[in-house]
Write a structure and sequence with these properties.
Blueprint lengths: L3 E7 L6 H14 L4 E4 L2 E3 L3 E5 L10 E5 H10 L10 E5 L4 E6 L2 E7 L8 H17 L2 E5 L17 H7 L3 E6 L5 H11 L2 H4 L2 E9 L7 H11 L3 E6 L31 E6 L4 E2 L5 H4 L4 E6 L10 E4 L1 E2 L2 H10 L2 H10 L3 E5 L1 H6 L2 E4 L9 E4 L6 E12 L2 E4 L2 E4 L2 E9 L3 E3 L2 E4 L2 E4 L8 H14 L11 H19 L2 H7 L18
Parallel strand pairs: 1-9, 1-10, 2-9, 3-6, 10-11, 11-12, 13-15, 13-16, 16-18, 18-27, 19-21
Antiparallel strand pairs: 4-5, 6-7, 7-8, 14-17, 19-20, 21-24, 22-23, 25-26, 26-27
Helix pairs in contact: 1-2, 1-13, 5-7
């Protein structure tokens, strides 16, 4: 028996597709429905390692999927797997993306091939969806960008092309916090072909603030003009960020000074906003610590007053290191370390802290490139063609630790103490493990080490990150249950009558 499926599409990137999909997954799972998330294609440098790989892979192997589908699987109570994100594009530059298919590296895609060079990717995506539908009652699919990417429609397998192929009812999500939500929803529908329009069964308004009664006239007019119901108006809720795929969501992670009691002793952590930042969720757990102020910086002056600097992962280590130098951040980081401040480099950020980075095979550009690092750690990185994926466990700072590895760089360490697959020299830490700070023990130990060196007394270790994540998922499902017509959504999965075609018009409201 084939399970039912739903597409959650959007009017634009960051309209709320990921959040709505995640909330629906948890809400359906709480009803006892076997549900799986799915996104045919991500374009994101925020990914996660999961157990297993493509068919025929060696037992015990690992695979790579988008971080958003990983958290959606957690919300659904399902085991994350490659079929939930069969195609992952990881931008290395504005013109080239590295391709991951069913969790494994599959070459690169140039900008000129984006429209026409993806037939094999579409086949992989369709096969993965068919597989999930054979094993789950409901598959909740997330679209990408806008549902009305009409320049890409002929080769589309992510939005309406996917919906058409699978006969999926589609929800269109719009972000009212940006303004223009009624025009964007009606315009999205009007730009679709009559055949695609038949699959759009309703709208969801996301991030609404204020009196819902003031919205009613607009909702009524939207329904009248389009013939589609608004199945929900989800309120804007402070702090409800998730493990998203898009760095546009970093704004929701900025520190809220109102959460700190006046006069409280806090640690300030500056996270460098690299242009090709990857796995930015590595610092999410720091954002939840009441004794920690996290800020995202791209200017050397913003490091003033920071107790610790985090250099996160990146999909373009050499290019982002050049950007760092071009902005003067390299010198500011070295000066910060010389003044007794802590520095934590994660994956690509760790590689930047070493003595040299070598690319003999051309992973990030021309083969044979060698560039000096910041020289804060005795380590040399050499890129290899094969990607390292892993789910390591170990100990550091006297506590158990775990994380995940995704990298081409192989690091050779000279002097210094070992630290999470990397090295430590005083308060300069380098690790190849993503996600390690999600471990409550390791995070607390690192923060205490930084605080002790800075002569600070802060309250840490009282936040359980895994429990906080579960609470956020349940809050999101509560919002869906309270503000969306979930019964109508379930009925929508069984199809329905033909709906009117909507065309662009200058008709005045009645």
């Amino acid at each position: 028996m084939t399970g039912r499926a739903l597409l959650v599409a959007g009017t634009a990137s960051d309209a709320g597709k990921t959040v709505v999909t995640t909330g629906i997954c948890r809400a359906l799972a709480r009803r006892g429905i076997s549900v799986a998330p799915y996104k045919a294609q991500n374009m994101s440098n925020n990914s996660m390692v999961v157990a297993g790989g493509a068919a025929g892979a060696a037992p015990g192997g690992c695979a790579e999927i988008g971080r958003a589908q990983w958290i959606q699987a957690v919300a659904a109570g399902a085991v994350p797997e490659p079929a939930m994100n069969p195609v992952l594009l990881k931008p290395g530059s504005d013109l080239r993306s590295h391709v991951v298919v069913m969790g494994e590296p599959a070459g690169a895609l140039e900008a000129g091939e984006f429209a026409s060079g993806r037939e094999h990717l579409a086949r992989a995506a369709f096969d993965a969806l068919d597989d999930l539908r054979s094993r789950y009652d409901v598959v909740v699919c997330e679209g990408a960008g806008s549902a009305a990417e009409i320049n890409l429609r002929v080769h589309d397998y992510v939005n309406m092309g996917l919906a058409r192929r699978a006969g999926m009812p589609t929800l269109v999500v719009g972000d009212i916090d940006r303004g223009g939500v009624f025009a964007s929803m009606a315009g999205t529908l009007a730009l679709l072909s009559p055949e695609d329009q038949q699959l759009v069964r309703g709208f969801v308004v996301n991030r609404f603030r204020g009196d819902a009664g003031l919205l009613r006239p607009g909702l009524d007019e939207l329904e009248r003009r389009t013939g589609r119901p608004v199945l929900g108006v989800l309120p804007w809720l402070r702090g409800l960020w998730l493990d998203s795929e898009d760095s546009l969501a970093l704004g929701a992670r900025r520190f809220d000074d109102e959460a700190v009691e006046p006069g409280a002793d806090v640690l300030t952590v500056a996270v460098v906003m690299l242009p090709r930042i990857s796995n930015f969720t590595d610092v999410d757990a720091l954002c939840l610590e009441p004794g920690v102020r996290v800020r995202y910086v791209d200017d050397p002056r913003a490091l003033a007053g920071a107790d610790a600097v985090v250099l996160p992962g990146t999909r373009a280590t050499v290019g982002d290191l050049a950007w760092l130098r071009g902005r003067g951040l390299d010198g500011a980081i070295v000066e910060h370390a010389a003044d007794g401040g802590a520095v934590l480099g994660i994956c690509g950020g760790f590689q930047m802290l070493g003595r040299e980075i070598r690319d003999p095979v051309g992973v990030e550009g021309p083969a044979g490139v060698r560039v000096p690092g910041l020289g804060l750690l005795d380590a040399v990185t050499e890129f290899g063609a094969g990607k390292v994926l892993g789910l390591p466990r170990g100990t550091a700072l006297g506590v158990a630790a775990s994380g995940y590895e995704i990298h081409h760089g192989r690091v050779t360490v000279g002097s210094g103490a070992g630290f999470l697959g990397g090295v430590r020299d005083g308060l300069v830490f380098g690790t190849m493990w993503h996600g390690a700070l999600e471990g409550d023990g390791l995070r607390s130990a690192w923060l205490r080490a930084v605080a002790h060196a800075r002569g600070r007394s802060i309250d840490v270790g009282n936040v359980g990150f895994a429990a906080a994540r579960e609470n956020r998922l349940d809050r999101l499902a509560d919002l869906v249950d309270e503000h969306m017509d979930v019964d109508a959504l379930l009925a929508m999965l069984d199809g329905g009558p033909a709906l009117p075609t909507v065309r662009l018009t200058l008709e005045q409201p009645r």
